[in-house]
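Chapter review: from sequence to fold.
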Amino acid sequence: MNLLKKGYYLLLVLLLSITVSCEDNEDGIDTIKGLDFNIATLNSKGNKVGVLPVSAYGNGSIVYTVDFGAVAEDDTDEFRTSGPLVTYDYPEETATYTITVTGSLDGVSDVSITKEHTVTYSVVVAPPVGGGNPLLGVWKFAPEAGAFGVGPEKENVSWFSSGIADVTDRACIFDDEYVFNADGTFQNVVGTETFVEKWQGVAADACGTPVFPHDGTATATYTYDETAGTIKIEGKGAYLGLPKVVNLAELTAPADAPDEITYIAVLNGDVLDIDIEVGGGGFWSYKLVREPAPSIVGTWKFAPEAGAFGVGPEKENVSWFSSGIADVTDRACIFDDEYVFNADGTFQNVVGTETFVEKWQGVAADACGTPVFPHDGTATATYTYDETAGTIKIEGKGAYLGLPKVVNLAELSAPADAPDEITYIAVLNGDVLDIDIEVGGGGFWSYKLVRE
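The token string follows.
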């Protein structure tokens, strides 16, 4: 079977061996019932997809053919499996594919079902460590007097400057974000409200709904020339500071927005001083400050409250089962477990001499007890936090967040089945980390972790 297609199709089978029965149908099955499959996106780029076929029988006799629908008819991107998760790396582009799963069993007719899956490809580039582009990150106006103003020369705002009261009165512009991404793209993130002015067609200068093309929808890039001390923003409607200020002019209508603007820039660590000449001997000046990057570095535990972990039909829904307030005491051995994200990219499960173990791990009953390998904290593991994609990937057999049995599209039935990596959906809000993970069959486990 050709597993490498046209130089870029790669099918990775998370399977050590597959045993397929070719003998007569001994189960007396006359038709394949309940054929279905679950689909999950397994990387931050969006192009690595996992498929887990299931049926009403699940006894290993049925053979599933998974067609990922990504290549021409004279080629193949199919794989036959008796049930384990299979994954496929689609081309690095946004596209919709039809995935087909066919169930086959000796002596009965094949059954096929299809589902459409859209790959939304996203290039995620981590900021360089110890060098590279020093402009990367999210910037805002400095929350202080003189954050923006105009005067007869650079860094001179004697004609007009914002005051300390404007930090509150014009909060809708002080929370606007100017985002320099590692891939060279630039974004204005203005939200549902920013400061708009009469030249944009509104009745009065005030906080209000952003006006196109200065509403954050521009597709834009930037070029930072540190030697020349300039930042060039390319993209109609993209800007730094105030949208009306362009090279040698101030706009009188939104439609007059230019395709590019070049700013004079002086970067000093997390402070960016911007100047731009508007003609007539005038210069606008802005002081921007870099926002601290969200970090998951630290030690985390289950929140000591009801609903700290549970399962339900969708993300953040624990209607099928959730931990109660009594579990904080009754299962204290899991509420004191630590999930440690180190600054060097390593990850640790610190479970101590006792944690909550379950029968699938080979113990007699679900209860506090001695940790079971490989979920005993001995795993050598790393983590990757992708804020843009909203994911945390834990790599290392036996390393996990929340509950050890819960992995992508499945729940473990034996410790030896622990995968080499698990990817979680993650939302970080200060010292609270909300985690979700799809386990197949339409179910999601959810965890609430708090930073120590």
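Two observations follow directly from the output. The chain has four helices and 37 strands. Residues 298-451 form a domain with the Lipocalin fold (CATH 2.40.128).
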